[in-house]
Write a structure and sequence with these properties.
The protein contains 10 helices and 14 strands. The chain is of the alpha+beta class. α1 packs antiparallel against α2. The chain is elongated and about 215 Å long.
Amino acid sequence: MEDNSDRNQGEGETDNNNDLNSKNKEILKRSEEMLTSTVLEKEGKDWNEKQTMIDQLLSKVNVLEKERNKAEEERDAFRDERDASREERDAIKEENKLIVKEKDVTSEEIVALKEEREVITKERDAIKEEKDLITKEKDVAIEENDALKEERKVISKERDVMKLDNETLKSEKTALDTKYTALTSTLRDQVECPVCLEVPTSGPVPVCPNGHFVCSKCKDSHCPTRRVKHCPTCRVKMFSGKSLLAVKVIENIQHACRNEDCGKFFPLEEYKLHLTSCLHRTVNCPSPNKFCSRKMSLSKVYDHILEDCQGSWNNIRNTNMMFNDGKSPKYLGFPSILKVSRKGLALKWNDQIFYLNNEKAPDYSVFSLELFGTALECKDYVVSITVHRTNDEDMKGKVQRFTGEPLPIDIEQVMRKKNGLMVGTNQMESLTVNDEKKDLRIGITLDIKKQ
């Protein structure tokens, strides 16, 4: 509609211009006709009058020209106003388009806000439900807490009662232990052999006619000076009497460990097992007897080796620290044992103590590794002893090797020479090397692993 109004307005301006031009033409035409007629009709009139008429006509023409110019100026002003109106109209149209776009965006934002509001509403409802659930759980927890408090009070009362009962039982147990200790001590004193001052650990138990006991070891000793013929207590002659009661007493009392520094008590069966594994049992120093033949408690052997054993390399300055770094495999350089036994060496690995012996037998040399433990404990380890030349630490040349369990510390030296790595004389000669000091030496590599 706006385009049609602009078109009509333009057509109106064109019509006005055409009217002005036609009027001007008509006026000129009339003027010419009047001039011509005047000339024709009044040829005889005075020239001054004609000139006056011409001036009047020219004045009228000038007036008409001015009117036409003014009309054209008005037309141009009208056109400028029309162009300004059109520009304003176009600006209004663009503004309307922007408003429409903003309206669309606003509508989308409103839809998004509505959706977000719905989500928030759902979340609020969920939070309300969760809050209600938490409130219920809180109420249940309060009820349970109250119940637990009541239960704790009951338990506290029961605990107090149990404490009293426990103290009573402890007192009774202490009293019973005292009575039992006194009784077993008395029984132990009664069955203790008055000759060897040891409590027998098995029957039969010889008894004199007056009821005094002697252990069968002392009564039937092969040594005439120690054999008991008369009761050491009442001096009556001993016959073949045996006490079944003494055997029952022996089987049911606690037996004190006879090893020095132990002093623990055990039932008979446990006592027999304990004697084989007691850390304070008496053992021989593991070094060769020609160097050291002392007997001592197992718990003191390692300190003895480090400090004053003449048959071990450990008491030499800095040697113990060098050899006992806990590493395995370990290479060791030793004097050859072609002719005589050599000193041994104590090694510590994973808090366990081992002892390496190099001994000479009549026709061979023996290399063995002892564990400071029982034969049963030796089954937990695998040791490898490899004898080789000192210049062959990689063991790519001639070697003699043993792989097996270590020997227990309780083994006798005679049996020790029959176990381990046994190397013949000829083989030993091929493995022996003269060093810079012209000493005969061999290389030994030890590897210890726990199974």
